[in-house]
Structure formats: structure tokens, C-alpha cells
Write a structure and sequence with these properties.
The chain is an alpha/beta fold and 212 residues long. 40% of the residues lie in helices and 23% in strands.
Amino acid sequence: MSVITYAVLGLIAIGCLVALTWRLASRRFVLPCPSWLAWLLENPFNGAAQTRTALERLDLRPDMRVLDVGCGPGRLTIPIAQAVGPRGEVTALDLQPAMLRRAQERARTAHATNIRFIQAGAGEAKLERNHYDRALLVTVLGEIRDREAALKEIFEALKPGGALSISEVLFDPHYQSRGTVMRLALVAGFREQRFFGNWLAFTVNLEKPPIA
């Protein structure tokens, strides 16, 4: 094999080793995607198509209130704000100030004035009860240390009949299986509404049961 082939294989091996190390470490520590890696979330290959798919699965309508948990640099926050319109509202929640600053800058560039930014983690009791129509966790659930508390808080923050959309991708270091997601969701009080994809990459929409 050529030197170039060996170099490419070496880079692939290093990437796999880093991903495996990160996955193992994330089982013991809270390791959200650091802000200096935000470009991985914003690159074109991770952009338009996935954003469009995520929005379609959310079933957004004008005037909705939406909670973006672990919003990161705002890749989904801004399109959601545009979809719900000026009378709608998006709450962008993230632990990392640097990520929120990137999201705020994107919001200013897009002239999106219907976004509220909160520096906090899910499960820290920072959210209003019975306030949101939709919530989403896109490759974020595994980054949360107390996932039970987080899902319970999101459940209580949603209006009766509101929906939480959880997306997971196998190659993410914090990947959560469908079985794990459903176990945690059922404990929080959710029921499954719809499932998209497969074990490699999936979205499960969960409903907070309406009041009888």
C-alpha cells in the first residue's frame, strides 16, 4: 500500500480510538461536546438535510412554544424560531456559556428575536411547568448526568398533549439505544407517539398524555 493509504488508515484508526475513549469516559463523567468543537455540529455534512428532517419530525406550527435542550451553537434553534413565527417562542437551554454565545450570535444574524437563552442543565428546575408545546433532545440525552431528573423536568414543562422528540446517532459518543430511551421516558410519564429510523440513527417522539 502507498504512504497515503497508510496515512488515511492511521487517521481513521486514531479517530476510532478517540471516539471509543470518549464513549467510555462519558459513562463516568459529564462530557458535553466542548464549544471548541462546535464546528462539528455546524458543518455542511451535519447541516441542512439533518436540520430539515429534525424539523419535519417535530411537526411544528406557528405560535408554538418550543424547548431546545442542549441547544449548542443553535443549529436547530434558529430554524425552529423561524418556523414558529414571531408570536411563537423558543427557549434555548445549554450548560456552556460559549455555546450560548455562538447561538446568540446566530440569532442576531438571523434577526430571530423570539428566542430566550438559559444557561442551565436539564433537571436543574429552571423551566416553567405546563408551558411548552414541543421539546427536543438531539444527541444530548447521553450527555446529561441525571437523565431521570432531566426527563421528569421536561415532562412537567410540557403542556398536556405536548411532545418530546429525542434523536440518537450511533456514532455519537453519548449514544443511547432505543431501549434505554424508552425505559427512561416511561419512568418520566411519557408514552411513545412515533418512531423514525433504525438502530443506527433514530428519532422517537414521545407524548405527555393529555388530561382526561
